[in-house]
Amino acid sequence: MTQVDYIIVGGGFAGFFLAHQLQKNNRSFVIFNGHQISGSHISAGVCNPVILKRFSTFWKSKDQMDYLETIFSEIESYTNRNYIIQEPVARIFHDEAEKKQWLKNSNKEELKPFLDTDFIRLKNVENPLESGIVKNSCRLDVENFFKDMFRHFDANQNLVNESFDHNAIDFKASAYKDFQFKNIVFCEGIHTKDNPYFNEIPVLPNKGHCLEVNIDGEIDPYIIKKKHFLFSLSDKRYYYGGTYDRFDQSENIDPEFVKELEDGLKAFYKNDFSVTKIKTAFRATVDDRRPILGTHHEFENLHIFNGLGARGVLNGTYFSKVMFDYLENKMELDPEIDVKRFY
Ligand SMILES: Cc1cc2nc3c(=O)[nH]c(=O)nc-3n(C[C@H](O)[C@H](O)[C@H](O)COP(=O)(O)OP(=O)(O)OC[C@H]3O[C@@H](n4cnc5c(N)ncnc54)[C@H](O)[C@@H]3O)c2cc1C
Fold first, then answer.
1. Within 10 Å of residue 120's Cβ, how many Cβ atoms?
2. How many CA atoms lie within 13 A of 235 on its CB side?
3. Does the Cβ of 132 fall within 6 Å of ligand 1?
4. How many CB atoms lie within 10 A of CB 124?
5. N or C: which end of the chain has fewer CB within 10 A?
């Protein structure tokens, strides 16, 4: 039997950022990651403090942006790679009223650090009314982040590449298969619906499609946003996405959303492009737009870290520390994020 302080279930943003906090604080742990579809693995990784419809911001956005640099420099210290790509969001304006709204909002205290009042004109894409830059926004190199995290935790014997069987927990012995644990933290995204201990918690799937496209022409190095995000992955390889669908819970590619993406890109990129990959997965969302942290109402060593919504990177990094402080330093959870709100 191997003794561990924690079993983490799930190898998406929630699971890996929490694993980082445990490693940093010398706690022993093992991560179970199964074959289930993960939203994190196909995400755009955009870290953006501004809601691009209304040019407003959201709860804890500044704290979350401030914490990004800390956590990724800690991760870089053992993977030897920087994952934060400092290419800001450039929001293409749809009309003059939007530009006015942007300028007006840029005077608000909470938006001053983010809304740049010097508009730019992007090359080779349609932006006749210019584009607004979100200062300090950036994106995560998602591909390399997961490649390195899987490799790192595998090399340290922290990773078990198999599905966690909820029915195999031996509560009397605090054991699961070959592991004796103090705590289990479920970071299962939308698959929490298959977890008999947390399946009543309302984690709502929001399906997203995204494309990889080949583009020959030169596009300025920004995260270009009109209806969706466009940015370069490497050379001619670009990411374009993602869509939002609260209804479809199947894992199939939906041609309607692929068309929405192709039309969305054609609306501002007038040259040829070819679609090389189509991907789909789910965001784990919550109606009140707050993540879900905390402990099972009956089993005090079963916990949940979920509900990262459309902001897996910002919520995942920031709230992984909150989760650690709750579990290990007995810090109280804000009732807004505590799983208790559903009991
Ligand atoms: C198209 C798209 C674009 C997105 N773009 C962005 C973006 O630009 N910026 C951003 O911040 N966020 C973005 N997101 C949102 C982000 O991806 C989610 O917030 C994030 O995926 C949530 O992470 P998670 O770890 O909670 O869940 P997931 O990523 O779904 O991870 C859950 C993990 O648990 C594993 N698992 C589940 N059940 C079990 C089990 N029984 N045993 C073992 N393993 C199990 C799964 O295999 C999976 O690896 C995007 C999402 C989509 C779909």
1. 14
2. 2
3. no
4. 14
5. N
Mutual angle of helices 142-155 and 61-79, in 10-degree steps: 50
227 CA from centroid of ligand 1 (Å) = 22
Question: Is 90 exceeded by the pLDDT of residue 66?
Answer: yes
CA distances from 182 to 133, 232, 330 (A): 47, 43, 15
Helix (H) or strand (E) holding 304: strand 302-306
Compute and round to an integer the Cα radius of gyration of the chain. 21
| Domains of the chain: residue spans and CATH | 2-44+143-203+287-342 (3.50.50.60)
Q: Among the atoms of ligand 1, which is closest to the Cα of residue 229?
A: 8
Which two three-digit tokens encode residue 267? Answer: 């609306």
pLDDT digit string (tens) for 176-201? 999 999 999 999 999 999 999 999 99
Report whether 224 contacts 230 (CB < 8 A): yes
* C-alpha span between 275 and 213 (Å, rounded): 4
DSSP 73: H
Q: Which pairing describes strands 159-160 and 29-32: parallel, antiparallel, or unpaired?
A: parallel
The amino acid that residue 255 corresponds to is P
Tokens of 202: 């309302």
* Cα-to-centroid distance, 56 and ligand 1 (Å): 25
- What atom in ligand 1 is closest to the CA of residue 210? 1
Supply angle C-alpha 308, 312, 316, rounded to 5: 80
Q: What is the pLDDT of residues 143-163, one digit of tens each?
A: 999 999 999 999 999 999 999
Inter-residue contact 232 to 238 (CB < 8 Å)? yes
Per DSSP, the three-state class of 29 is strand
